[in-house]
């Protein structure tokens, strides 16, 4: 799934003031990291991930790993070592951004 235009711009604007919820460090991309990302994205819909300086992971590696782990997770933006991901929440009570995206 690819988000384009005004929808992508909306998600980027919402993520601008967010703090990273997950930091990828020396451990790199592990099954535990992917499970934690999935739990957070299912509750928040929009998350920011930061790559620490001591990691050997490139942003493209994390994007590829997440797309293989769950095809519904969408990469929204990468700036330096920070990345933003979006996924529509499976439970209606957690949907905040997806409701706004439907109105755009």
UniProtKB/TrEMBL annotation:
This is CRM domain-containing protein. It comes from Companilactobacillus tucceti DSM 20183. It holds the Pfam family CRS1_YhbY. PANTHER family: RNA-BINDING PROTEIN YHBY. InterPro entries: RNA-binding_CRM, RNA-binding_domain, YhbY-like_sf. PROSITE patterns: CRM. Residues 1-98 form the CRM domain. Keywords: RNA-binding. GO terms for molecular function: RNA binding.
């Amino acid at each position: 799934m690819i988000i384009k235009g005004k929808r992508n711009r909306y998600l980027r604007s919402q993520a601008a003031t967010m703090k990273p919820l997950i930091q990828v460090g020396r451990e790199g991309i592990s099954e535990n990291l992917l499970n934690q990302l999935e739990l957070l994205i299912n509750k928040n819909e929009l998350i920011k991930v930061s790559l620490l300086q001591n990691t050997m992971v490139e942003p493209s590696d994390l994007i590829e790993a997440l797309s293989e782990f769950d095809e519904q997770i969408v990469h929204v933006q990468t700036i330096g070592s920070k990345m933003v991901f979006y996924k529509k929440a499976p439970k209606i009570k957690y949907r905040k951004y997806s409701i706004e995206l439907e109105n755009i």
